[in-house]
Amino acid sequence: FREQVRAAIQALSDKKRDCILLYYARSLNLSEIAEIFDVTPSRVSQIISAARKELRDSLKEIASLYGFVQD
After folding, report:
1. pLDDT in tens, 47-70
2. Average pLDDT score over the chain
3. Residue 47 near residue 16, CB atoms below 8 Å
4. Cα angle vertex 62, ends 19, 11, to 5°?
């Protein structure tokens, strides 16, 4: 399952992937990420939300096979 998650993250656009990784792996807050990309914290939140939805959609079937979610 880890490989599928890694592949799904790699399939994201560069900005979505970078925001997700900075937020979850580096524990930066929205303001810190906004500074890096020269956007508002609100925009970073939108990007992260879109990335989460994309990841959720792409991993839904795989997650159900592993018993992480129910259909």
Report:
1. 999 999 999 999 988 888 888 776
2. 93
3. yes
4. 35
